[in-house]
């Protein structure tokens, strides 16, 4: 988790956000492959269709902007592209390994104790993984000497140190909520659906940013509109597959 976050941040800061998005969308190629081998997930046409539509959705988000985008002097396409690609690879591998933890350990443990798996297992996995990721991130930050950069960033924040701290706390809380959703989907359904949902929310977030923050020169264009449509169709395809499975089971 720590490595994936670091690589993703590096990619965003060294290549334009549109390029990063295109490369980062490759996670939807990696996840089904890992899921097939690690989690033994079987695919049908509805899942394949959902993944394809999600890939299109992620690719169409390239028109969005990002406040930390590098200028031409700061761009490093080689390093940024590799960072984005490996971040996508790590994210896919992380999702599949989380599902493997549920399948191989937590679900089997609950079977032995005659208890049904509960959503508390999600928090159990998330707390331990986040704790390890936090320790690794702090150690890495100290080794790299980036604590001075954080102090300078806080001192130069236009709205003051208090607002900077509030922003950081807000980001931390938001990311935890995000990961509860991601891990919860892995727990409830599969790593593939979790990845699909995580990607198809990109255009929704980009539209909300435009609406509520009037971000930079970003606006709601045709690409965002098409991305929203493909996002809905992707979700419908996957949930239709789940609906069919439930009907067959009953």
UniProtKB/TrEMBL annotation:
InterPro entries listed in its UniProt record: PUP_plant (IPR030182)
Main location: membrane
Full protein name: Purine permease 14
Membrane topology, from the record: Multi-pass membrane protein
UniProt keyword Metal-binding present: no
Transmembrane segments: 15-39, 46-68, 80-98, 119-144, 164-189, 196-216, 222-240
Domain of life: Eukaryota
Location of the protein in the cell: Membrane
GO cellular component: membrane
PANTHER family registered for this protein in UniProt: OS09G0467300 PROTEIN-RELATED, PURINE PERMEASE 14-RELATED
GO molecular function: purine nucleobase transmembrane transporter activity
Matching Pfam families: PUNUT
Taxonomic lineage from the root: Eukaryota, Viridiplantae, Streptophyta, Embryophyta, Tracheophyta
Record bears the keyword Calcium: no
Keywords: Membrane, Transmembrane, Transmembrane helix, Transport
Family affiliation: Belongs to the purine permeases (TC 2.A.7.14) family.
């Amino acid at each position: 988790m720590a490595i994936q976050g670091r690589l993703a941040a590096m990619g965003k800061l060294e290549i334009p956000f549109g390029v990063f998005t295109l490369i980062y969308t490759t996670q939807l190629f990696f996840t089904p492959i890992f899921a097939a081998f690690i989690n033994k997930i079987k695919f049908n046409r509805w899942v394949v269709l959902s993944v394809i539509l999600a890939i299109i959705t992620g690719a169409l988000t390239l028109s969005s902007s990002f406040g930390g985008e590098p200028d031409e002097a700061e761009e490093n396409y080689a390093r940024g592209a590799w960072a984005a690609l490996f971040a996508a690879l790590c994210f896919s591998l992380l999702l599949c390994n989380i599902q493997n933890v549920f399948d191989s350990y937590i679900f089997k443990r609950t079977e032995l104790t005659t208890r049904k798996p509960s959503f508390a297992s999600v928090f159990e996995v998330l707390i331990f993984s986040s704790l390890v990721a936090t320790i690794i991130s702090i150690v890495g930050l100290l080794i790299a000497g980036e604590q001075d950069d954080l102090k300078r960033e806080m001192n130069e924040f236009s709205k003051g140190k208090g607002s900077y701290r509030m922003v950081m706390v807000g980001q931390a809380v938001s990311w935890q909520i995000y990961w509860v959703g991601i891990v919860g989907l892995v727990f409830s359904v599969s790593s593939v659906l979790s990845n699909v949902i995580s990607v198809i929310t990109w255009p929704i977030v980009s539209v909300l940013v435009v609406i509520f923050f009037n971000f930079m020169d970003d606006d709601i264009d045709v690409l965002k509109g098409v991305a929203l449509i493909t996002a809905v169709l992707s979700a419908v395809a996957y949930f239709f597959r789940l609906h069919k499975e439930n009907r067959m089971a009953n």
